Amino acid sequence: MHDAILDIRRLRKAFGALTATDDVSLTLYPGEIHALIGPNGAGKSTLIKQIVGELRPDAGEVRFEGQRIDGLDAAARARLGLARSFQVSSVIPDFTVLQNVCLAVQGGSGRSFGFLRPILSDSGLTEPAGFHIRQVGLDGREQIAAGALSHGERRKLEVAMALALRPRAFLLDEPMAGMGTEGAGQLVSLLSGLRTEAPILLVEHDMDAVFALADRISVLVYGRIVATGSVDEIRANPEVRRSYLGEEA
Amino acid sequence: MSRIAVINLATLGLLIGGALTAHLTGHAFLVTLATKAAIFALAGVGLNFALGYGGLVSFGHAAFFGIGGYVTGILASHAMSGQPLTTLPYTMNGTNEMLAIWPMVLLVSGLAALAIGALSLRTSGVYFIMVTLAFAQMIYWFAVGWPAYGGEDGLSFYVRNAFPGVQTMQPLSWFLICAGLLLMTLGFTAVVMRARFGLALQAARRNTQRTVAVGIRPFGIRLTAFVLSAMITGLAGSLYADLNRFVSPAMLSWYMSGEIMVFVILGGVGRLVGPVAGAMLFVTMEHLLGGISDYWQVLLGLVLLGVVLWSPGGIVGMLSGRGRGHA
Amino acid sequence: MLLFEQLLNGLQYGMTLFLMAAGLTLVFGVMGLINLAHGSLYMIGAFACAVVTKATGNFWLGAAGSLAAAAMAGALIEMLVIRRLYSRDHLDQVLATFALILIFSEGARWLFGSFPLYLTLPPSLAGTVTLPGGLVYPVFRLGVIGLGIAIAAGLFWLMHNTRLGIRIRAGEADREMIGALGVDISILYTLVFALGAALAGLAGALVGAVQSVQVGMGEPVLILAFVVVVIGGIGSIGGALLSALLVGMTDSLGRALLPSLLAQVMPQASANTLGASLAAMSVYILMAAVLVWRPTGLFGARA
């Protein structure tokens, strides 16, 4: 087996009496989509924030390609290739699609202190940006303000921005939220193809999407991982059925 | 040509054309008024760099305006008296050459902004507003209390500093120097805001979390913007000192910070020529209304209130028909 | 003895600052509004006190007048202007309230002219009292300290034991929630604003009584009150009280001690001016130090 790209060991975070992350260990291997599911308030967001560096864990380690990254800030982790998308679409609304993706390319390059050359004639930005825009199927929309895009298009733009970081791992926080049935189908096939670029840790409520996409699933309940396994194993796991899938099974 | 480009050209044309017309018709006073507008505009362009594009609401830019003024006044007064500023570590003399004064102004206001910005940018929101205000007050009180350069009474230097090949006391020549610096700074701002740095700065204003998530640390970007912004406003302060041949703590006061903000807001936040339009309106109002009533600032207050409440895009926003400025 | 006197002066000055800062921090905590015109309310209080005292010959009526005038002016600007600003960003708030300063200052100059007015204190307050230990201290200043303590206690009681206070605190925690509870937010906001204004007006009357009443008197105090609010942590009454005393002490002790310290190394005249301005600066240095240590102030929870 390959070494894990993302290796979370015994992560722990408490807010007062509430333990939001309770000894969580989680791995993400090359080529896989690992879905993280769990009821609302299970601590998924808290866990994501600790992985990307917005929140400091009380104990435990986050290793990325074998290297500890829990001491780094969020920007440094992004530059190492940990690309994330947000629960609520997070793009710069009055930038164009092209400017948004250029921003991500620029961030990944680590060179933001250019004062003279215009973005639009900086082929080091526009060429990769154009490539990623085509990759998600937004070509032809480059000059549209991101705020004017449809919800589904904005989701795609976020994927393009994540791709522009040349990620070693994706962390996608509920990418399917708010998608209609048709858009959801498109997005599922887009995400499915992404795993060849880099493995995905997928936080998702949409069970159809999870079962369609995931290679492995971990179930988080009250800050603890109660089960990890293949789609079939999770479907069959009695504890998961009781504690989480109960209402659906 | 886009509508905004037309507005930009018309605003600058009005300023420069107005000064030329005043000169040709022999209204030297109006040329000086246009010079004042150009200098205030430059101060506003400086603030707009941080406030409009970077979202850094500095209520302390008078600090840099005043520092620019004092550096100019101090160098000029030493040039006049022949006393060196310091003899350690080596002798440093005063100067009355603008081309020597300006780099010094940029250096000192930049260093001051580096220190103030590094501390203030640890905070955000209302804290940032109040902290920048407080730092400016600190420098204000220092200037009031430091007796060597006039303290509360300020410092006069009688003769306007020199620029090679130009008779700076001649109103139009002096206007052209100031307007030239204003145009260069506007060009610089326009270029920077289209480049990588400008993209990162504006992105950090619109969505900090997203900007961090693509690997950009806002702190360094913002601090750089704050320093550049202060250097521009400092340069304006130097010109203002030369305009009046006098500097005083009033240039450092909280009220001055408020006025610089007013130039930006009247014209349009985050608009390239917003501060130019705002400064022109301000100086015009001051001149026209100030002639009618001593209490013209009541009217300024009402206009400002009206702009904030009903036309937050300022003059440029109103003319372009699109609210607040953006990328 | 000198030190003790300066400590009392610091306490008295701190209490005045607290009266200013309490309103600012309440208005920010509850409505999320940064109000530069708070200094104008202070000035209005001082002028009202001067006018009423002069007309009636009674300082107590003047003080009551300052409360009433500032509260009314506060309620008026809240209803006309301020309430349009709650949903705006801080930049708009700063500018609109800056505009109010221009209007109020020039309006006051128009009504009262640029010359300062002076108040005469009633004999019962004008005298001095000998404190245990032999220090002779003005009665009025002691009264200010006592009043400050009483008002601070009253505010804590108001915030923690009355329905109004509970609603205010609920509003700080969650603006939508109190709307859902059926509290009429716009009346609550007007009340809170008027309360803050009344305290500022009272502070103006108290300071005006010992110094002078003039246009522009509000802004230097306003800026110091901002420093107090920032050091204490925005929205915290307790933080405002603690930091007002800290700032008051720093300023008074600095003013008293720095000139004599500096006189060791420079002529007395320069030492006096430089010492005074270093004392004025010391407050801001204090603020910078606190912010480096805690960017949201001593008791501030969030930016």
Summarize the model shown.
Helices cover 71% and strands 1% of the residues of chain B. Chain B is mostly helical and 327 residues long. Chain C has one domain (2-110, 147-293): Orthogonal Bundle (ABC transporter involved in vitamin B12 uptake, BtuC), CATH 1.10.3470.
Give a verbal description of the structure.
The complex is a heterotrimer of chains A (249), B (327) and C (303). With 249 residues, chain A is of the alpha/beta class. Chain A has two domains: 1-81 and 167-249, Rossmann fold (3-Layer(aba) Sandwich); 90-166, no CATH class. Chain A contains nine helices and ten strands. In chain A, α4 packs across α5 (151-164). The longest helix of chain A has 14 residues, at 151-164. The model of chain A has no long low-confidence stretch (mean pLDDT 89). Chain B is built from 13 helices and two strands; from the N terminus they run αααααβααααβαααα. The longest helix of chain B has 27 residues, at 218-244. Chain B has helices at 3-24, 28-51, 62-81, 98-120, 125-145, 171-194, 196-206, 208-213, 218-244, 254-267, 274-292, 296-310, 314-320; strands spanning 155-156, 246-247. The two termini of chain B are 18 Å apart. Chain B has a two-stranded antiparallel ribbon with strand order 1-2. Chain B has one domain (3-253). Chain C has 303 residues and is mainly alpha-helical. Chain C has a single domain (2-110, 147-293), classed as Orthogonal Bundle (ABC transporter involved in vitamin B12 uptake, BtuC). Helices cover 76% and strands 2% of the residues of chain C. Chain C is built from twelve helices and two strands; from the N terminus they run αααααββααααααα. Chain C has helices at residues 2-31, 38-56, 59-80, 90-112, 123-126, 139-161, 163-173, 175-180, 185-210, 218-232, 237-262, 268-293; strands at residues 128-130, 136-138. Chain C has a two-stranded antiparallel ribbon. In chain C, β1 (128-130) and β2 form a beta hairpin. In chain C, α1 packs parallel to α6 (139-161), α10 (218-232) runs parallel beside α12 (268-293) and α11 packs antiparallel against α12 (268-293). Classes of the chains: A alpha/beta (249), B mainly alpha (327), C mainly alpha (303). Chains in contact: A-B, B-C. Chains B and C meet through α5, α10 and α12 of B and α4, α10 and α12 of C.
